[in-house]
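During the reporting period, our protein records have gained a structure token line. A sample record is set out beneath this paragraph:
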Amino acid sequence: MTELAMPIIEVNHVSKEYRLGTLTSLKDSAQNLLRRMCRRPVIRRKPFKALDDMDFTIDESEVVGIIGNNGAGKSTLLKLLANVTTPSSGTIAVRGKVAPLIEVGAGLVPDLTGRENVFLNATILGISRADIAKKFDEIVGFAEMENFIDTPIKRYSSGMKIRLAFAIATSVDAEILIIDEVLAVGDLAFQRKCFERMENLIKGRGSTVLIVSHNIRQIERMCSRVLLLDQGKVVADGSPLEITDLFYRRSNEKIESEHKKLQQGKLHKYSSGEIELLSVELLNEQNQTTDSIPSGGTLRVRVKFNVNQILRRPEIVVGTHTTDFFYLSASSTALIENRPDLDVGSHEVEYIVPSFPLVAGTYCVRFAIFDQNQRKVFTGETLKIFTVLPTALEIRDAPMRRLYLPTHWRLDGVPHSSPTPAAEMVASI
């Protein structure tokens, strides 16, 4: 009978607790001393659980993404796995050499040069001096630090520090690589180099990789498994598409809830004073207000507003964006010939997309008005939140799952029609 391989990482009922705040004043310390002497209760700092009874395993060669909102416990977990700190309770077993890259410039000594830090950091990570010398030129070349390698680290920018630290950490033949929000450093060319190196580590070496990132598309592309953290707990564990979709839904629900509270007060907008926004409505085919449309259905938005000062030939812009402010579309009345003036009084504009090409999800409406000299008169984002409902046409596991495009196919010269709905955008006054 074949013996089952043990997980390369085991996290068993791990909690990490911190004490919030400190007793900073001499008076506070003296008062606590007197309380102890008098056998009275002392002032204690409020406890905070960064991790709460976390329990999971990771097998060898897995590429695991860790996502969650700020404060969910992601960075704390990585520090525990990298042995930077220890858990308050529970146990962690890590079976392999770890190359951590969890903080900008972590482990770099400011007063030493880049060259000296390469040898120091690599030695800490378990590379012999001879092996460091062999890899030195490659490390420096990857980090693009040839002109600065003999300059003290304290004179480096944060980007230079993380480039050098990334080059060192990924040059180590480690079984486990731990990365916390560092793949977006530098320009686009350097980011591409980082992705290529990570993919080589994953596919070529078969390393076990843990990645914390707020870039969800990056997580979907690189990871074979994703953990979703919330308030120090693992609330979901599964495939990238499954977990990232859940994360989007939870985030959208939170944003929508917060926005409803905001709408009870004041909408998020800028106005020069010439425009007063009255309402933003989503309409169905029966001309009734709604909060949802089917994927590929007609998007019809009606915006009502007051004009307090006559506007000559203004440009009106209506568009959509995701709840995390990824801008999707915008249409303008600028191309309308002889576009009308807006007199003082009430007005309404309708924005109509006959076949809205976005897949199921939560989206927002944005609205802006510019005068004939392109001066911004009014702008507002997230003025209306609406849901696009899935249809039978939607392929749930398609990569990037954002947009349907009108497509015509020819196979061996024979035309074939695509079932995807057409996307046409019309703005009308």
The chain has two domains: 9-251, 271-428. Confidence is low (pLDDT under 50) at residues 393-400, 418-429.
